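We close this part of the discussion by returning to an individual protein. The encoding preserves chain order, so positions in sequence and tokens coincide. The sequence in question and its structure tokens are set out directly beneath this paragraph:

===
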Amino acid sequence: MSSRRIIHSEQAPKAIGPYSQAVQVGNTLYLSGQTPIDPATGELVPGDIGVQARQVFENLSAVLAAAGVGFDQVVRVGIYLTDLGNFAVVNEVMKQYFREPYPARSTIGVAALPKAAQVEIDLVAVFD
């Protein structure tokens, strides 16, 4: 088995449980789910689903950057929404961070998320 490398960014929220922001094994990077927490305050950003989704992608961007990887290397996106009616808005925000060909993706409706967030997103990236 390849050795694991733990990835951490001060520009992303601290983990609020017993997990790492990301773990690299070989040329694969697994990012834990990010919620719309402002890393400076540790609080949920105020605003609608568009504002929350942008903050999530900014948090993910910081973790990717700490690993020396960008959104172009992302192969899978997992999106968790407390209201699947927000699907279209999250799609529009996602298009600001990714370009074609888009990664594989799943979108799952959930009953609740930490700190009453409306969205959580995790990623898998593969790089050379």
The chain is about 20% helix and 30% strand.
